[in-house]
Design goal:
Blueprint (H helix, E strand, L loop, with lengths): L11 H17 L3 H8 L3 H8 L9 H14 L5 H14 L18 H16 L3
Helix pairs in contact: 1-5, 4-5
């Protein structure tokens, strides 16, 4: 599914969590810099949180930690936001390949090994006939 700018769309749960964080900050009348000062989180990470780009925070544990700190600073219920972030990461996690989708390895020897064996055989047989 593509958004209007052509990028892959992010999980809906991320959009809900981002909107909740942004709306609360704006309701308090805080700027991103003020929230950054209260949480010790960089503005780039706060922008990523409010843009529903939790993947730009590094590993999922960092996105969850940043969102938790921001929610606490703004005196929000953090549990729904954290669940939404976890759900979004779970939805984006690639599916592990099944045994049927993995191609079988060929049983033909490596060309380098085969040519080395042929040369070795030729060298050993040259002087003894």
């Amino acid at each position: 599914m593509l958004s209007e700018n052509g990028a892959a769309s992010w999980p809906e749960s991320w959009a809900v969590a981002a909107a909740a964080l942004r709306d609360r900050r704006e309701a308090l009348g805080w700027s991103l810099e003020q929230l950054a000062d209260r949480t010790c989180i960089g503005c780039n990470h706060l922008i990523a949180l409010e843009s529903a780009r939790f993947d730009r925070c590094g590993a999922p544990v960092y996105a969850i930690g940043f969102a938790r700190a921001a929610a606490r600073a703004m005196e929000m219920a953090e549990a729904p936001i954290l669940v939404a972030i976890r759900d979004g990461h779970a939805a984006r996690r690639p599916v592990a390949p099944t045994a049927a989708s993995i191609p079988r390895r060929r049983r033909i020897p490596n060309l380098g090994i085969a040519s080395t064996a042929a040369r070795l055989g030729a060298l050993l047989s040259d002087g003894r006939a």
